[in-house]
Amino acid sequence: MSIFGLFRKQRSAPMARERLQILLAHERASVGSDLVSVLREEILAVIAKHVQVDRDKVQVKMDRDKDVSMLEIDVEIPRDATLKAA
Amino acid sequence: MSIFGLFRKQRSAPMARERLQILLAHERASVGSDLVSVLREEILAVIAKHVQVDRDKVQVKMDRDKDVSMLEIDVEIPRDATLKAA
């Protein structure tokens, strides 16, 4: 099953809310480079630029092992939140 | 299996390359709002700001059905590509 399928299966039951989920994985060749923490704040800023979200409706999870750094951002968007003009 | 597990399983065999994969899913309540195309260019710009990548090493896939818009960005980072100072 492709990753897309997993997103669909996890769909939040009541569709009254919109939901934005971002998964970022960085397969590192060297231990030093860690893009995930560098990109995290900027991706959050890009989202906030376009959608009105409450900070407490944004969940951020980071995970890191020997080779892979992972970032998961889960944003619940209130139904009446309009897209901000870019 | 969590989505994180899927990322690990798909690890590219030779670790000579670094790889950055971003999946974005927008569960829409209304048909109109389509965050994915709005966020796509800005997320690509955030990545390019921090990592030297060749445009032809960046694959972007978009997928959309009744409720969910999906974006997958797959970036192959040359081993010697240094992180740009933010």
TrEMBL record, chains A, B:
Task: List this protein's GO terms for biological process.
Answer: cell division; regulation of division septum assembly
- Keywords for the protein's UniProt record, in alphabetical order: Cell cycle, Cell division
Q: What Gene3D superfamilies does the annotation carry?
A: Cell division topological specificity factor MinE
InterPro entries per the UniProt record, alphabetical: MinE (IPR005527), MinE_sf (IPR036707)
Coiled-coil ranges from the UniProt annotation: none
Tell me, in a sentence or two, what this protein's role is. Prevents the cell division inhibition by proteins MinC and MinD at internal division sites while permitting inhibition at polar sites. This ensures cell division at the proper site by restricting the formation of a division septum at the midpoint of the long axis of the cell.
Write down what this protein is called: Cell division topological specificity factor
Give the source species. Rhizobium tropici
Gene that produces this protein: minE
